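S1.2 Input.
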Amino acid sequence: MYIEEVIAIILGLVRGEIQLVEPQVGWKQEFLKTQQQIHEATGMAFNRIEHIGSTSINGIKAKPMIDIALGVDDIHHVSVELLKSLKSIQFYRLQVVLENEVVLAKFLDNGKLDTKTHIIHLVEYDGQKWNDFLSFRDQLNNSESLAKEYEALKLSYLLTGNGDMNDYTLYKEEFVKRIVGRTNITDS
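S1.3 Output.
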């Protein structure tokens, strides 16, 4: 019970809001709890449920949402059963249209769907997006200077950007491309 109250304090971003908060110890534990829930609901192997995004990078400020890469065999043939299983643990498919990716979210206020706490990026296991997500996370966790450079970039957007989530993503795109060693990433 106490852990749930702490988690509610450190997670959640209101729709349209871009906010970075200090790193929270509870993020990794919340991911592990969510990974277990996804495994139990879907039967997916743990190695296909990975913590990604800024909350998975040690010691940097992040949007207070847990990003998860969920690896499927074929993104163009995602089973209805999988989506129903994810919905049973309050992950709802979003109307976001991304190439080779399905996006789902969990919300703090289940009825209103305003405050996102978790995002699932459903992608092909061991495919390009999967590998980019993990490579980016691992490289930043292995280099404090890269992690701090990424944090500074995100903070600079808050000072100069217009507060639009798409603009925020584009603002970070060149950095992400450089880290994963490619120049043809379609999103970050």
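S1.4 Remarks. Helices lie at 2-10, 26-42, 80-88, 128-141, 144-160, 165-180.
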